[in-house]
Amino acid sequence: MSTPETQSKSTSAFLAQAAIAFGVAFIATAAGIIYLPLDIWQRGFLLMTMLFLVSSTFTLAKVVRDQHEAARVHHRIDEARLEKLMAEHDPFRAA
Fold it and tell me: Which residues form the YiaAB two helix domain (predicted)?
């Protein structure tokens, strides 16, 4: 009565596409900030905010993934408990 493990894995092509898209976006944003007609401190501020945005995005993605995995583990534990109760239940036994 257990359900098969259906964990979707990303293909290598999707991983490569995501990495390339991230690299292009990061380099384009950095180049745009560097070539803006601004003072050095203004460029520095924009570069620091861009780096903070990237690091907080990675942190958010990790937290969302961890919560999803924890919920999946709890769901599997609940399923195992239910299967154990159903296996141990004898409807013809006198109470």
Answer: 14-66
